[in-house]
Amino acid sequence: MGNATSNKTIEDDSLSEPAVPIVVPWDFSNHAKAALRYARQQFANPDIHVLCVLEAPNPYEIGFQWGVDSEQEAAQKCAEDFAKEAGVQHASETEFECRFGDPADEIARYAKSVHAEFIVMSTHGRTGLQKLVLGSVAQKVITRASCPVILLPNHWYESNDKQIEKADG
Questions:
Q1: Nearest alpha carbon to residue 106 among 50, 41, 67
Q2: Mean pLDDT, to the nearest integer, of 62-87?
Q3: CA 87, 88, 90: angle at the middle one, nearest 5?
Q4: Fold annotation for 25-57+66-168
Q5: Separation CA 147–CA 21 (nearest Å)
Q6: pLDDT, average across residues 122-134
Q7: Which residue range or ranges hold the UspA domain (predicted)?
Q8: pTM recorded for the entire structure
Q9: Helix/strand/coil for 120
Q10: CA–CA separation, 77 vs 115, rounded Å?
Q11: Is residue 168 predicted with pLDDT exceeding 70?
């Protein structure tokens, strides 16, 4: 009995890898394109969720006129721009969402809500005073995320830039 074999036919679907939920923050930079491409290439069956976070304007600023319509228009424009940037084929293969607020908080919150197994993002290479004043979104995401964060360093994008352009073209 220990060496018994079965003649059951195994369905192809049962052999396929389960979908891996991955969040890719999107800021329309070439660095974000590189992170999206990396997520597609490194996982056998990625379930990619692209998140664009727009900072809501300060309601205490002079001339503030932001409302639900403005947010919806901004989110719609963001989605349209993503479709143009990523290409229609790739845009249809991903979930896209636009949120408003602090980028690091929203990325961590969204990743948790979609049960992401990974966040894949790039750094922009800020150093010195820029990093001190602006902070690092990536650094904040690492400390707030409930899943592993894969960071593509600025130099990775630059060294792979020509390969990315070839694949896009």
A1: 50
A2: 69
A3: 70
A4: Rossmann fold (3.40.50)
A5: 11
A6: 62
A7: 22-152
A8: 0.72
A9: strand
A10: 26
A11: no
